[in-house]
Amino acid sequence: MPAALQPRRLLALLSRHATRVLFAGVFIGLALPPLAAAARPYLLVGVIVLLTAMLLRVDWGAMGAYLRRPVLATALVVWLLAGAPVVIWLTLLPVGLPESLAVSLVLMAAAPPILSASAIAVLLGLDGALAIVGGLIATLLTPLTVPPMALMLLGLDLEISVGALMARLAAIVGPAFLLSLAIRKGAGPARLDRYKPEIEGFTVLVMLYFGVAIMDGVTARLLAEPAMVAGWTLAAFVANPLLQLLGGLAFAWLGRRGALTVGLMSGNCNMGLLLAALPPGTDFDVLLYFAVAQLPIFMLPALMLPIYRRLLAAPTVERA
């Protein structure tokens, strides 16, 4: 029996130290390039598994409550897919950054939230249901919004086939929903609640896999052009919290927990989705930024956890 309990203990341990584990993930990928290269081909499967695990942890009743608030859902999606990239574009106009970096920052802001935002939200004590609702709607609408935003703001034709990208999204979201429904029906709410730490630990394990896989190729570029990689990384560490701050301020009317959740979604953008859609001749420097921009996604939750705890513990009035 003790041996059989070891996997559960390991998963529970990962759940308790989630932010530290995610922090370490990207460094593992940088330190072990062969491991990152071996993990990269299976990212799509990992996305489906991760989304399934997140759907098992989110309160579906709370998700339904948000879906019945069309004004909130509409405002959230408009901000994530249109407001954020326009604000970043306007901010960059007088700065004079290299063109590839400016393009990368605007495309980042135009991307939907990462699908794991709800998992990170839960780990930080934020609203996982709001994160999953906003993230899923924004992801499904991405094929309709990113190409015109890129063309309008950057003059960049992404050559994205709406139908093909929608099919790709359906191939990710559909199986995850069906699998989570099957598991919920088979296990029952009581058992899922009993295994909450293990499910959270498994989610962290899959996210750790992501942190390793996404670093494929970054180490070689770091050794070849350290100054450039450092500059792109600094830009990512500025852009992520800036978008979080802007998103939180824009939705301060939701109350502290809701505003922080929207901020988290605003800064942690799914650039991997854009990687699949960008044409073959895309500037390699843009692809480099998309890779190093994963660093703040995995590192900031650990660094900012004490701040989140302090903000959420302070007295506040939640508003609908």
Automatic annotation (TrEMBL):
Transmembrane segment boundaries: 18-36, 42-60, 72-95, 101-124, 131-154, 160-181, 202-223, 229-252, 259-280, 286-308
Chief location of this protein within or outside the cell: membrane
Alphabetic keyword roster: Membrane, Transmembrane, Transmembrane helix
UniProt entry tagged with the keyword Membrane: yes
Keyword match Calcium: no
Subcellular location: Membrane
Gene3D superfamilies recorded: 1.20.1530.20
Record protein name field: Bile acid:sodium symporter
Organism: Rhodovibrio sodomensis
Phylogenetic placement of the source organism: Bacteria, Pseudomonadati, Pseudomonadota, Alphaproteobacteria, Rhodospirillales
